[in-house]
Amino acid sequence: MSEHPVSANPLDLDLEEVLARVVVVELPLTVKFRGVTTREAVLVEGERGWGEFAPFPEYDDAEALAWWRSCLEAARCGFPEPVRSHVPVNATVPAVAANAVPDVLDRYGEGITAVKVKVAEAGQDLEQDLARVAAVRAHWPQVAIRVDANQGWDHGQAVRALSALAQYDLEYAEQPVAGVDGLYALKEELARRGVEVPIAADESVRKAEDPLAVARAGAADLIVVKVAPLGGVRRALGIVQQAGLPAVVSSALDTSVGLSAGVALAASLPELPYACGLGTGSLLGQDVLAHGLKPSNGQLPVGAVSPEPNNLRAVELHGPRQQWWVERIRRVHRLGQSGPNR
Ligand SMILES: O=C(O)CCC(=O)C1=CC=C[C@@H](O)[C@@H]1C(=O)O
Ligand SMILES: [Mg+2]
């Protein structure tokens, strides 16, 4: 790729030249997350660094376009100047059985100050969520605990669950129910009942037509921002600035290349009031860097990353899955050149 000015459109490139050099990888997860045990991603090296394209397989091309823009921003434009050298991260606990919690937490090492616990998993019940959160509190008594329901509760379930979980002094509840109206109604009801659990919006930001609608409606106390679904670090920075709410930077279960874009966003935000959901490198069984981005003393370092050729070769995909990703990029790229500026 030739020298690329930051102000130009990163989609303006010779696509076949880029596709000839992309690396498609599949990384094993050490714990099942979002129902999957491996994570596929495409890595692209550009004149300013490495970018990652890894929209989940079920996402359509319109949704995947923001991830492609984000990948090309990293590869071709680089990132804004950081204002800090390290970012604090939370441990993330998937919807595992309570007795598996200590083992999951220990993967993140010492010095973690916040833990995010997945709740409302399909096929599980509130007792299992309470037991998982209790196991976190028992293993690490001092940490702040937040829960993420991925909009898995309806209004009544969320009121019941958060009223019960409030005994653990929750830092916040992430996307307990679906939609801006749903979040607003829940926030009102919790306030009426005196249940003091702040509400964070995730899907209502990253999957919304208008990522600012939730802030305008006063339906959340804070927002979760993820670089790839929001179309890159600069777009995510703009959304945080316009939302005017505290922001938590999170991963999309990325390889260390994708995580480094999240770190770049966290590093350039003027305020960083919460530990970031960027510790998920600890859930990967293999990574593309010689030393993957895993927390040390609860923090990740800010800076460029570069995959190690041997690590890349060990996880590189060939054949039909590689072709599937290449074809997906062709379609998404065409959409970006022809369609509305999503
Ligand atoms: O925020 C974290 O602690 C880790 C990232 C995380 O939870 C997620 C990553 C990828 C997909 C999402 O289902 C999930 C989330 O909902 O925040
Ligand atoms: Mg979430």
TrEMBL record:
E.C. designation(s): 4.2.1.113
Active site: 118, 226
Keywords: Lyase, Magnesium, Menaquinone biosynthesis, Metal-binding
Every Mandelate racemase/muconate lactonizing enzyme C-terminal domain range: 94-193
Catalytic reaction annotation: (1R,6R)-6-hydroxy-2-succinyl-cyclohexa-2,4-diene-1-carboxylate = 2-succinylbenzoate + H2O
One GO process term, biological-process aspect: menaquinone biosynthetic process
Keyword Magnesium recorded: yes
Family: Belongs to the mandelate racemase/muconate lactonizing enzyme family. MenC type 1 subfamily.
Function as written in the Swiss-Prot or TrEMBL entry: Converts 2-succinyl-6-hydroxy-2,4-cyclohexadiene-1-carboxylate (SHCHC) to 2-succinylbenzoate (OSB).
Protein name, entry field: o-succinylbenzoate synthase
